Amino acid sequence: MRTAISCLTIATCLAFSCSSPKSTGSKMDAKVDSLLSVMTLDEKLGQLNLPSAGDFTTGQAESSDIGKKIEKGLVGGLFNIKTVAKIKAAQKLAVEKSRLKIPLLFGMDVIHGYESVFPIPLGLSCSWDMKLIERSARIAAQEASADGINWTFSPMVDVSRDPRWGRVSEGNGEDPFLGSQIAKAMIKGYQGDDLSANNTIMSCVKHYALYGASEAGRDYNTTDMSRVRMYNEYFPPYKAAVDAGVESVMASFNEIDGIPATANKWLLTDVLRNQWGFKGFVVSDYTGISEMINHGIGDYQTVSAKALEAGTDMDMVSEGLLNTLGQSLKEGKITEQQINAACRRILVAKYKLGLFDDPYKYCDEQRAKTEVYTTANRAEARSTAAQSFVLLKNNNVLPIKRTGTIALVGPLADAKENMTGTWSVAARFSESISVLEGLTKATNGKAKVLYAKGANLDENATLENNSTLFGKSLHRDSRTAEQLRDEALRIARQSDVIVAAVGEAAEMSGEAASRTYIELPDTQRDLILAMMSTGKPVVLVLFTGRPLALKWEDENVPAILNVWFGGSEAGDAIADVLFGDVNPSGKLSMTFPQNVGQVPIYYAHKNTGRPLSGQWFQKFQSNYLDVSNEPLYPFGYGLSYTSFSYGDVKLSSPTMSSSDSITVSVDVTNKGSREGKEVVQLYVRDLVGFVTRPVKELKGFEKVLLKAGETKTVTFSIKVNDLSFYKYDLSYGAEPGKFKVFVGGNSRDVKEAEFELK
Ligand code: BGC
Question: Which run of H or E residues covers position 744?
């Protein structure tokens, strides 16, 4: 593409200053045009190239000798590189040694905090607190940017209804509405109001699209679904991210309609750019381009050309765009315009980050020393963790007292390296607070804390090994299961209460960590049984990155506190909740099944022509012979140390037109004797549609703080957009007719009212 500016010399182009009086947009265009006009084909392809710097790996990097490539202008950005010193050194190569001195992007999976680690995203989503979530991303951006990073591969917003899929830990659960709110909050937290500030970073929403619907919950697997379902149930969080101004999008590994997302033009261009108006750039996932050879849509050159044509701008690790697009151009398979368009988008992102003004703006050693892992950030991580915990059951055991003797058992009790959970690449594992440390500090000599491991993660050592990768060892004990249990029994018998820290290891969820068996490993259940046999009260502190099937535990153990992976300060946060300094208020963002056979299970299901009403089991109705349709714990569920009651649902009018709104109000009362937070949830059901509608859909929520005995009136406004959906022809709108409104503290226990849309 030749423009009027294309005659600028390289010198003029490089000297072009951002202090020009023109508006930012035109200044940016001028800068990018001037660069494009002098770039060689190889330099343009270099901008599309994103090799891994190799500090951490999630696959096989094909790149080598990265430094030389940077000098030749053959690298657009690096990821998996940490510390200002290393980043500065790499940036120096780009801006001092390469011909055009174009600065590099530095990416990292800053997923739930940087060195101050927050709860895994699934846990964070259970806070239902958008300000809290935004703040966690703000702090992550602050720390990462102080340490040289300017781009994070977050948020992950893949809706998923299959707890077998390990990556549910990285997302926000099953609901498109909640997921959309969280997508917006995260992007605001990372990008702030000014992407060019040195403490904000570029966000990358992923994995576009439908990655969470992989068949059988197996990672990287095929997805296949109707467009009506995509648009209504799986697309909304990605679209919300685009609406919130996300600057980059990562294509997913899976195929859609038989075409891998990375080469899917309908997805990346028709929907993302043309329908949603996305203006940023698309990066492939890790070797997402070369993996399309295995998918079976062509050789290295072909898949690379297909990726570019579809709308993928940057190639993570495959180097297919760098190595083959020149040949494809010669053969007329792609155009230079397509290359220019991709290159332009990358340059625009660099411009928006302010890298052309100051390529070292994120490389301030002083900031790295003073703004990372600060006392204040760790305190915020601690209180955030406590907000993410979900109290699943409590038969008057919790909170426990700081007196007497507490037995702490379980493979997760003294497991620092596991506290941060999956995707915590910048964490300082050895400094995380374990449950043992948290309880010891919190009791401060007032109660005696006795510890015994009690069980390994699993009797299968290979499974334990594969679940504790990346330095997250659980320090497997070589004693037999019986010896470990006996030791735990000895301390349990001397105690007043038993806290059992059990569940999954950090890498038992996350990428490539799918499971077909989602119950607690037998050896851990045996430990719980042994603890129960003492007759002492037992509290499960449950670590997990996914909904587990806990029917047995629910039936047998008096108290279960689900703590996910709470981050670097998890142990302190757990103590805060166990001793009642913090009242738990988390609510599930994903349904817990009774057993794995119910999966996929989610509250916003359709009704079928033969819904079960009344008693289970009924022949020729939609149900199972061996288990009811009910989940163990429904979406939105979570207990508190106090309890709440709901008054009747009041509507401002029995009818509404498409131009006005209805106000829904309900009185919520704290019936207990201590202050607590309740997430008041609003669901809607469209009773008749041209296409069938879910039995309930979340359309609003508010987290309210109520003093003991206090009543607050919570109001929601329903507008026509809340009643709209994508129809069979993918047109969007609401249909007149009757709607039910439900309000409650979870998706199952609700009060209802009805209105009509005229
Ligand atoms: C994951 C992405 C991640 C990327 C870079 C991939 O394997 O799927 O979520 O951002 O690696 O580390």
Answer: strand 737-744
Query: Which tens digit of pLDDT belongs to each residue from 506-537?
Result: 999 999 999 999 999 999 999 999 999 999 99
Phi, psi of 236 (to 5 degrees): -50, -45
Q: Does residue 158 have its Cβ closer than 6 Å to ligand 1?
A: no
153 lines ligand 1 (CB under 6 A): yes
Strand ranges (E), 602-661: 644-646, 650-651, 655-656
Collapsing DSSP to helix, strand or coil, 170 comes out as helix
Ligand 1 touching residue 511 (CB < 6 A): yes
The amino acid present at 349, given as its one-letter code, is A
Q: How far is the CA of 124 from the centre of ligand 1 (A)?
A: 20
Pocket test of ligand 1: the residue of 206, 285, 317 to mutate, having most ligand atoms within 8 Å of its CB, is 285
Cα separation, 50 vs 289, in Å, equals: 12
pLDDT tens figures, 218-256: 999 999 999 999 999 999 999 999 999 999 999 999 999
Pick the residue whose CA is nearest to atom 2 on ligand 1: 285
User: Atom 5 in ligand 1: which residue has the minimum CA distance?
Assistant: 286
Candidates 3.10.310.40, 3.40.50.1700, 3.40.50.150, 3.30.420.10; CATH matching 383-589: 3.40.50.1700
Q: Are 614 and 582 in contact (CB under 8 A)?
A: no
The whole-model pTM stands at 0.95
Pairing state of beta strands 405-409 and 497-503? parallel
Q: Token pair for residue 34? A: 């001037």
CATH topology assigned to domain 644-757: Immunoglobulin-like (2.60.40)
Sequence ranges of the domains in the chain: 383-589, 644-757
**Ligand 1 and 286: CB distance under 6 A:** yes
**Do the two domains 383-589 and 644-757 of this chain adopt the same fold?**
no
